[in-house]
Amino acid sequence: MSIDIETARKVAHLARIRVDESDLPALAGELSNILTFMEQLNEVDVDGVEPMTSVTPMRLKRRADVVTEGEMADKVLANAPDAREGFFAVPKVVE
After folding, report:
1. Where are the domains of the chain?
2. In this predicted model, what pLDDT tens digit does every residue of 16-51 receive, in sequence order?
3. 35, 47, 74, 77: which sits with the fewest CB atoms below 10 Å from its CB?
């Protein structure tokens, strides 16, 4: 698939990237190369291949699901720059 200069201009606009007119042909070429590579990847047969979460097989460390110390709101709120009535106080941002 080939990307023309007008499509490259539109992609840059949608991505909110300022691209000089003189750089648009190079951008169009790079985008075309990316799409060509993606088309090559689509040709690979991946039937029966398990998805990977890491390059080395490993299991995540797990801890026992037990109740730990709770009721420490005072300690947590002691770190807050502003706490009122048992809650974090933050500036109003929505009218």
Report:
1. 5-42
2. 999 999 999 999 999 999 999 999 999 999 999 888
3. 47
